[in-house]
């Protein structure tokens, strides 16, 4: 069965600083990987996804993620964080049957 | 607006009662997923439907049931409600491409 680990429960960065959120997955086949963002009181919004090909994928809101098969990782990055990026971020792995497993989430706080 | 509609947005009910949560998927999406999100348990997968048929089951209690109708909308029925059932309930849909589109959720409070 697949699983997703987000090692950091909470991260605080200063506005304008760079950001990296970690995600490690466990899945026997080729993974389909996703990052979602959830603002308070809202549903989850898809930021970006990886299926195959180029291991660096670009998403919305200036986010990117890099797939590293050797490390079973799919870390999310942003070069310069904005105050509006404060939210909870979820990494997910999806099987080819369409079932997703989500990590426990990382809460991002942005300091002014 | 994500295209996935959930109603109602908020629901307050007493223990022992039964409620129905409704979800209309994004146009063209055949799959519907239900998730429960609480502070202590995170995002928990409950159940998946594909074109009217149950496809996968997760951590769904026997007191809970769901169905997907011919027009593809789905309902999640929660019965004999307990205080611990208070949570955000999300519906998501997906189509031919991978990745989910989530609704904004129903916040259920059991008092």
Describe this structure in words.
The complex is a heterodimer of chains A (112) and B (111). Chain A has strands at 3-5, 10-14, 19-21, 24-26, 32-38, 44-50, 56-58, 64-68, 73-78, 87-94, 100-102, 106-111. With 112 residues, chain A is mainly beta. Chain A has one domain (3-111): Sandwich (Immunoglobulin-like), CATH 2.60.40. In chain A, a hairpin with a 5-residue loop joins β5 and β6 (44-50). Chain A starts with a strand and ends with a strand. By secondary structure, chain B is an all-beta fold. In chain B, 0% of the residues lie in helices and 54% in strands. Chain B contains no helices and eleven strands. At the A-B interface, β5, β6 and β11 of A face β5, β9 and β10 of B.
Task: Please render the helix and strand layout as text.
The complex is a heterodimer of chains A (112) and B (111).
Chain A: E1 3-5, E2 10-14, E3 19-21, E4 24-26, E5 32-38, E6 44-50, E7 56-58, E8 64-68, E9 73-78, E10 87-94, E11 100-102, E12 106-111
Parallel strand pairs in A: 2-12
Antiparallel strand pairs in A: 1-4, 3-9, 5-6, 5-10, 7-8, 8-9, 10-11, 10-12
Chain B: E1 5-7, E2 10-13, E3 19-24, E4 31-38, E5 42-50, E6 53-57, E7 64-68, E8 74-78, E9 87-94, E10 101-102, E11 106-110
Parallel strand pairs in B: 2-11
Antiparallel strand pairs in B: 1-3, 3-8, 4-5, 4-9, 5-6, 7-8, 9-10, 9-11
Q: What's the CATH C level of chain A?
A: Mainly Beta
**Per the principal axes of the C-alpha atoms, what is the gross shape of chain A?**
globular
How many helical elements of chain A?
0
Question: Kindly state the mean pLDDT of chain A as a whole number?
Answer: 92
Descriptive labels:
heterodimer; A: 112 residues; mainly beta; Immunoglobulin-like; six-stranded mixed beta sheet; 0% helix; globular; B: 111 residues; seven-stranded mixed beta sheet; four-stranded antiparallel beta sheet; 11 strands; 54% strand
């Amino acid at each position: 069965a697949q699983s997703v680990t987000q090692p950091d429960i909470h991260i605080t960065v200063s506005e304008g600083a760079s950001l990296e959120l970690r995600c490690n997955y466990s899945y026997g086949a080729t993974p389909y990987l996703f990052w979602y963002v959830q603002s308070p009181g809202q549903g989850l919004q898809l930021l970006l996804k990886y299926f195959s090909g180029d291991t660096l994928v670009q998403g919305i809101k200036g986010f990117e993620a890099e797939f590293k098969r050797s490390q079973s990782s799919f870390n999310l990055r942003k070069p310069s964080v904005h105050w509006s990026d404060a939210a909870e971020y979820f990494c997910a792995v999806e099987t080819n049957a369409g079932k997703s497993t989500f990590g426990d989430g990382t809460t991002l706080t942005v300091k002014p | 607006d994500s295209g996935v509609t959930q109603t109602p947005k908020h629901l307050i009910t007493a223990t022992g009662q039964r409620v129905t949560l409704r979800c209309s998927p994004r146009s063209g999406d055949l799959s519907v997923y239900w998730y429960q999100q609480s502070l202590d348990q995170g995002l928990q997968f409950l159940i998946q439907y594909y074109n009217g048929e149950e496809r996968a089951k997760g951590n769904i209690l026997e007191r809970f049931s769901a169905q997907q109708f011919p027009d593809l909308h789905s309902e999640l029925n929660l019965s004999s409600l307990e205080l611990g059932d208070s949570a955000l309930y999300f519906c998501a849909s997906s189509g031919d491409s991978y990745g989910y589109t989530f609704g904004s959720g129903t916040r259920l409070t059991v008092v």
